[in-house]
Amino acid sequence: MLDSGHVGVWVAKHDAAKPLVIDPVLGYSTYLGGTDYGTGIAVDAAGNAYVTGNTFSSNFPVLKVAQPNRGPTPCQVTRLPRDSPPRPVLRSGAMPDPIPSLLPTTVIGSYSLPKWLEAVRELQTQGRLSHAELDEAHDDAVKSCLKDQEQAGVDIVTDGELRRETMIYFFNRHIRGFRLYGPLKPIGTLDASIRMPDPVVETKVARSEMPLAPHWQFAQAHSTTLVKVCVTGPHMLAKRTWNEVYASDRELVFDLAAILNAELRDLARAGCRFIQVDEPVWVGYPDEVKAWAVEAFNRTVEGVDAKITLHICYGNYQRKRLFPGTYRELFPAVLGANTSQLVLEFAVDDLAQFDDIVGQFPKTLELGLGVVDVKTDDIETPEGVAARLRHALARIPPDRLYVNPDCGLKFTRRDVAFAKLKAMVEGARIVRGELVGRASRRRFRVSLRPPGRAPPASRPPVPTGSPGPPGCAPTGRRFPAALRAARSGAPRPRPAAPAAWDATRSRPPGSRRERWRRCGRAGGPFPRTAADPGSS
């Protein structure tokens, strides 16, 4: 099997009926259809050859030929980095498409809610539709949502949270101890006029049956890419309730964290490899974050065998900001969270806090960068998204950067949501192509230079008068001298003709050995002059 540093091209049996398609930016090869997972070569229009392994396997990475194969000369093959999470097996037995190792794109969770789905829910509430018919409508909505994200080119998708009435009610409904639809309560701390009938805690909360795993399994079975699951965090759930039982919010939060932890463990055992926990209230309660909320988060994800990310924003109900404050107030306490990635809202203020925040990141922490503002209908351009990514790449390496909208797209019109995702994906592709191009030029600039070509202009020429190797005369031997002369552009030095016969020499001055001995000392080729005719 080929590995980094090997030279040559190895090809296994490949079914020609299942062609290989080359991604125009990354050069990934995709094996289309079937279960005969082979390995083969594809050649793009420019003549670049690409080697592909079993692209549906998380154990056999896709390989890319770094040097074009334009003849019998072997190509040097390098392993592409694979830092993406392992991909689960689908019910169909196929595997999701490969996720780019540089700048993967994803969404926060929710997607544009169809008006017809709201109408169907109302009909079911009136008793005019059965629960089975409502489930069928949810299935159709989820399939449509997945299709939108895949057509937009998103690498890691969600089911759009379309089965959830809200990010609060869904969990309250499946946790014992809550009574739904209590008195109106302000959402957030910024505008008291934004209110919802929040649930009431009537008894100690306890675990009930929560269908997170079945919902993920349905979505993954109907998607060709990786599906992640988003879960509302315990702090957010506690702040959106009327607490009539617990002595403090802290006690309620830790009981909710224990319940969610059991659910997430079951979700991971079902095969889900990517889980995002949403805590949009953290910006509004920095003192609680510093005191105990980070500990509650760690209790929520303890022992969960999956990639864990933490989403923090300013709130997004009806596309309005709900909490004052800044991310700065959460640092460095938030760095104590057991998460591989912080997913933050940045596009809304055009990365105003970015430099202050990312400067505090440890070298192992990833960033989910919000590059699309969901609080406006203005559609970003791919060039604008690319500019934000370039700004971010000045502070954080590309292998630790994910690309996403600021927040969920639930309250965004569907055409606007789709256009924003398209712009986000295209902007990521622009920058990804720039990164791959620069890396290729840096890695192979010297090794791919044809023999005899002058070195790059940026490299200073070696002075002809510089000393040679240790033990040699200052002028160096003939080969270093000739090389220095070629680099400097100076004429090649030639020795003077021998003056006369030296009786101490064992051979006459015209002998071949004597000529080579003299030119070795002088640093040039042997002369052929009248005094030294060149015969031996």
Please give a handful of descriptors for the protein shown:
536 residues, alpha/beta, six-stranded parallel beta sheet, three-stranded mixed beta sheet, 12 helices, 19 strands, 14% strand, globular, disordered N terminus, disordered C terminus
Terminus-to-terminus distance: 57 Å
Low-confidence stretches: 1-45, 49-95, 443-451, 471-479, 529-536
Beta-strand level of the residues, as a percent range? 5-15%
**Rounded to an integer, what's the Rg over CA atoms?**
33 Å
Total strands: the figure is: 19
Description of the structure:
By secondary structure, the protein is an alpha/beta fold. Helix content is 30%, strand content 14%. The chain has 12 helices and 19 strands. The strands form 7 sheets. It has a 6-stranded parallel β-sheet with strand order 13-15-16-17-18-19. A 3-stranded mixed β-sheet has the order 8-11-14. The radius of gyration is 33 Å and the shape is globular.
Could you write a compact summary of the structure shown?
The protein has about 525 residues and is α/β, with parallel strands linked by helices. The protein has helices spanning about 115-125, 130-150, 170-175, 210-220, 235-240, 250-270, 285-300, 355-360, 380-395, 415-445, 480-490, 510-520; strands at about 20, 30, 40-45, 50, 65, 75-80, 155, 175-180, 185, 195, 200-205, 225, 230, 240-245, 275-280, 305-310, 340-345, 365-370, 400-405.
